[in-house]
Design goal:
8-stranded mixed sheet, 2 domains, D-Amino Acid Oxidase, Chain A, domain 2, globular, 12 helices
Length: 416
C-alpha cells in the first residue's frame, strides 16, 4: 500500500493549512500570464511555465487553493483510454506522475495498484478487447484477463455466476494507480511559488477585459489586471468565464457524487470499474473503500449529496462486493464536472480571440490529465505553437465536425 507520509511532509501540510504557505501578495497591475483557477490544472500550468522561465504569473481562485474539483476527486490515475488522440496524451501524463514526487520534492503517495474494467457481456468484452488492442499499439500496458485471473487479483469480488451481469472478463491496466490529491495540489503550488509565481486565493474574477477581439486582462471586485495571456482553468465554471468574452463553450456542468466507507482490513489491492453497474471502487491506505460512479444526469451547480445517488452507488457496489453489506458509510460528497458532448477536453486557443487560452472540459478525469495539460499549455505559451499532442482537443473541432468519442473509455463515469 502507500508509503507513510514523513515528518517533513506532515509539517508542510500543517503549514499550508495554517495559511503560512502563501505570502500576502499585493496583486500587481499587470502580468505576463493570469491563470483563472487555483486547482491542479492551474497550478500545474504555473509550475511548468515557471520551469520555462515565465514567472510573471498570477494564479487566482475564488476559494481556497485546490478547494474545487481538485479537492473532490477520487484521484485515480490511468492511461487506458479509447481513442488514438487520448491514449498518447494520458500515457504521457501518467509518465509525468510517475516521477512527480521527485520533481516536486514531496511524497505524493502515488501507488500503482492497477485497474480492472469489468466486462459482463460479449459486447462489453468486444469493446474492452478493442481498447486493449488500441492501448498496446500506442505503448500503454493493457490486456484482457479471465475470471480466474480476476479472482486471483480480487478474491473478494463476486464473479456473479448464474446471476445477471456475470463477470466474464476484464481489461487489466497494471500501471494505473491512485495518488494523494491534496499533495499534488500543494506540491505544484509550493514549486510555483518558490519560482516567483503569485498565488492568490479568495479572489473572484467577475469579468474579462476584452478589446478588439483580444482578452487583455481580468477584473476582480477590487482591481483590474492586464495580461498578455489569460488562461481559463476553472473546471465546472469554465463556461461562465468564457461567457465573459462572449465565447459559448459546448460544456454542461454536472455534479459527480462519491462516498467512502469506514476503514476495513485490506482486501482490495486494485481499482475496479463496471460499466454496466456504473460504479467503481478502490481501497485507500487507511482502509476506507472509495466508491463512485457516473455524473448526475442533469446539469447543475449544486454540490449537495442526494439519497438517490448513494442508493445507486451502494446497491451496485454490493453486487460486486456483497461482503460490504454491513459496512457503514463515513461520508458522501460532490464535485462539479465540465462535460463536453464527446467526453474529450477543450485545450488551446480560441479562434478569433487573441490572448485567451482554454484548459477545460475535462469532465470526471481531469486530475489524470493535469501534468501533461499544464506542460502542454506552458509550451504553447512559451513557443506560440500548439503541441501536436493537444491539437485534436482544440475548440474548433465542434464547428469542423472533427469531434472525438471518448465516452467509451470511461463508461462507469459517464452520465447514467
Amino acid at each position: 500500500m502507500h508509503q507513510s507520509i514523513g515528518i517533513e511532509s506532515m509539517k508542510f501540510f500543517q503549514d499550508s493549512q495554517q495559511n503560512n504557505f502563501f505570502d500576502n501578495h499585493e496583486i500587481k497591475n499587470a502580468y505576463d500570464v493570469v491563470i483563472i483557477g487555483g486547482g491542479v490544472h492551474g497550478l500545474s500550468l504555473a509550475h511548468y511555465l515557471a520551469k520555462l522561465g515565465i514567472t510573471d504569473v498570477l494564479v487566482l481562485d475564488q476559494g481556497y487553493i485546490g478547494g474545487g474539483a481538485s479537492a473532490r476527486t477520487t484521484a485515480i490515475l490511468r492511461a487506458n483510454y479509447y481513442t488514438p488522440e487520448a491514449i498518447p496524451f494520458f500515457r504521457e501524463s501518467l509518465k509525468l506522475y510517475e516521477t512527480l514526487s521527485s520533481e516536486l520534492e514531496l511524497n505524493l503517495l502515488f501507488n500503482q495498484i492497477g485497474r480492472l474494467d469489468i466486462g459482463h457481456s460479449e459486447s462489453a468484452i468486444y469493446g474492452l478487447q478493442t481498447r486493449a488492442d488500441f492501448n498496446r499499439l500506442l505503448n500503454v500496458e493493457s490486456y484482457m484477463v479471465g475470471p480466474n485471473e480476476i479472482s486471483e487479483l480480487v478474491p473478494a469480488m463476486d464473479l456473479r455466476e448464474n446471476k445477471l451481469y456475470p463477470v466474464m472478463a476484464a481489461l487489466y491496466h497494471p500501471t494505473a494507480g491512485v495518488i494523494r490529491h491534496d499533495a499534488v495540489v500543494w506540491g505544484y503550488a509550493r514549486s510555483a511559488k518558490r519560482m516567483g509565481v503569485h498565488i492568490v486565493p479568495f479572489t473572484k474574477v467577475i469579468d474579462l477585459i476584452v478589446c478588439r477581439n483580444r482578452v487583455s486582462g481580468i477584473k476582480t471586485i477590487n482591481k483590474e489586471v492586464s495580461a498578455k495571456i489569460v488562461v481559463n482553468a476553472t473546471a465546472g465554471w469554465a463556461s461562465t468565464i468564457a461567457n465573459m468574452a462572449n465565447i459559448k463553450l459546448p460544456i454542461t456542468t454536472h455534479p459527480l457524487q462519491v462516498a467512502v466507507t469506514e476503514p476495513l482490513k485490506p482486501f482490495l489491492d486494485t481499482t475496479v470499474s463496471s460499466a454496466n453497474f456504473h460504479v467503481y471502487a478502490y481501497q485507500t491506505d487507511r482502509g476506507e473503500v472509495v466508491i463512485g460512479g457516473g455524473v448526475d444526469a442533469y446539469p447543475s451547480y449544486s454540490m449537495r449529496s442526494s439519497l438517490s445517488s448513494i442508493h445507486h452507488l451502494v446497491s451496485n457496489t454490493l453486487k460486486m462486493f456483497p461482503m460490504l453489506r454491513d459496512v457503514r458509510l463515513l461520508r458522501q460528497w460532490s464535485g462539479l464536472c465540465d462535460m463536453t458532448p464527446d467526453y474529450a477536453p477543450i485545450i488551446g486557443r480560441v479562434n478569433g480571440i487573441d490572448g485567451f487560452l482554454l484548459t477545460c472540459g475535462w469532465g470526471s478525469w481531469g486530475f489524470k490529465a493535469a501534468p501533461m495539460a499544464g506542460k502542454s499549455v506552458a509550451e504553447l505559451i512559451f513557443t506560440g505553437k500548439t503541441p501536436e499532442l493537444i491539437k485534436p482537443f482544440r475548440l474548433s473541432r465542434f464547428s469542423t465536425g472533427k469531434i472525438l468519442n471518448e465516452r467509451a473509455s470511461a463508461p462507469a463515469a459517464a452520465v447514467h
